[in-house]
Fold each of these.
Amino acid sequence: MQCCGPARSCSLQGFDKNADCVFWFERPLRAEMCWLGCCLMEIRAYTPEREFIGTVHQRWSMFTPYFEVCDSDGISAVRILGSCCNTRCLSEQELQVVSTIGDSVGRIWKRWPGYSEECNMDHEYFGLDVPQGMNLNTKVLLLAATFLLNHMFFEMS
């Protein structure tokens, strides 16, 4: 598993303050470098009862990150578009969440304050900004997308 690095498969459960499971994410093993559109990354979201919510699919793009967020029926809800330079060492990065017709409806952002010698600490902050009225399942899928983006672009091991 360790030799696969950020491309490794994983499962992630989220819990509320009462220790009740509120979501379950699964990410299958994929090839880390994929130039021709095969083996693109994805993550699937489920309810605590393992009912399928939807999938976040990486779509092939020449230079910029491009993801499609699809509901349980495979219908595209929103898309995620990034800049051409998503690397760990840039301190501030942002990916736009856009509707199927191209209107901006939110953003996923990352802040990296840099390495702190005094605390021997290297950490990043991620955020998801979306409208309050957005569909709950779409919000859960965008949270899954945030974890997927972290694994793809910012994880080192």
Amino acid sequence: MVTAKKAAISSFYAVDRSEILGGGRFGQVHRCEEKATGLKLAAKIIKTRTAKEKDEVKNEINIMNQLDHVNLIQLYDAFESKNDCILVMEYVDGGELFDRIIDESYRLTELDVIQFTRQICEGVRHMHQMYILHLDLKPENILCVNRDAKQIKIIDFGLARRYKPREKLKVNFGTPEFLAPEIVNYDFVSFPTDMWSVGVITYMLLSGLSPFLGDNDTETLNNILACRWDLEEEEFQGLSDEGREFVTKLLTKEKNWRISASEALKHPWLADPRLHCRLRTQKQQRPAGARDPTDK
């Protein structure tokens, strides 16, 4: 169990402040090294000038302490000072999954997307079994372990919440294009809220497109509330029926009708080895959605 030490991080770790690994609303992540062992780690430096900000970091530490899964980033140590808190976490160097979506030279096959989606669902299932909602799932919050392997870890539990069935939880934060309809409506959130985001991520991995993104936030939120999306774009040509059904079962406006992480992992798209074998041999691993020149 990690608790925030009121000691100087420099006594234990060398933090390379010149190298920024990532950042967000919280601050920045730097590469660091444990002085005693030489172990490479990542230091997330969070500005905490108010009691509320400090409590938010303590919540993040508390949540990360409860999670132990190969597809979730692990907390290693924590430090607290007057103006900031520093979380020391395991280091991975494969970059954001988002980078692979937008990289024109990196074409994902449907089988690649299945591999990524399965791991996302496995990480989410573990969180949900521990009664934790992530509430900020998006490609920027999924890191690849290295440049070559298709292994991922979910990061950033800064907005995560413990789910207590008797306490009806409402939230009003997140990134517009990944918000579930119940967040937009300021309605109660629960496990299906994360599964909507998994649906958006899967859609993006398959196509490079964002299903609800409008010209501005208002249009994006209206698209979400109307549940206005389809798989008719050229990028989805060649997508298996199982893949289409999988996305459809997640991007469902009524949250009680969405499949859970456990159900997603049993869905044929993620679980049927015969389908995976067919996709492996089919059309020499064409990118998901790419048109086969032999197709009439």
Amino acid sequence: MTDTLAIGQYTDIDAQALRQDFDALFIAGWDGLDSLSEDQRAAVRAAAYKGHAPFGGAQMDRLPNLRLIANFGVGYDAIDVAAATARGITVTNTPDVLNDDVADLAVGMLIAQVRGFEAAARTVRNGDWAAKGDLPLGRKMSGRKIGILGMGRIGREIADRLAAFKSEIHYQSRSPKDTPGWTYHADPVDLARAVDDIVIAIVGGTETQNYVNADVLAALGPDGVIVNIARGTVIDEAALIAALENGTIRAAALDVFQGEPAVDPRLAKLDNLFPLPHIGSATVETRAAMGALQRRNLRAGLDGDRPHTPVN
């Protein structure tokens, strides 16, 4: 009887590897636990998890011998780490391997909004360029003051890229970091006042829920663009919708949303929003690396070794 349970929707390649290396048993979501016998659930020592549905104490208790949760992804806010720790369960994630892809996307989204790529492409496709002439001018990307909200691994990669655009880098995090002279702000409102645009790269979870609120958006101002590649929960979406509708800020570019994949239709319809469907790490190379790291953590845990990237 297998000791590994795979939860979520896996690609054929990752699913094949989990079957080959661990003889994993698969369920698409938590309803699938009902299809498992008591003996099957009791045999599970490790769970490969891929998803955003809450993985809390109630689910852990249905797997009484669970000792490892290997998350697919760097963000693990869906997993109740405190509940896992209390039960002697190690939680791992897949950091670093996706930093480049997410940082590349963040910079691309910011440029797209500052220069107005989506509207410009639309005028070519629908014939308006020939019929109506040129669009209003965009704004210059190079040299803008950029605020990075969260100077962790991904935030640092974003800042390094934007520094190459001759940007003046400001950041807000729990504490000052070792940087090449970038400006630290202890408060997100102070950060917003000092910069032209903000890129959000903080962790999700209850501590950062609605961290970017109406006060932050007002401080950013009517020329500001906000980019979010972190978690949808870190922005107060009602405040963001209002800010985009009334011109409190100029535009937003979001790869993540509250309640995704269902997106608030009031937000999705706005012309000054550039939306993407959570594709920050969605490249062949990076998803393969994430799957490989998840499996390395599973193997280490099952063999009694310390996993490579534990979070508790």
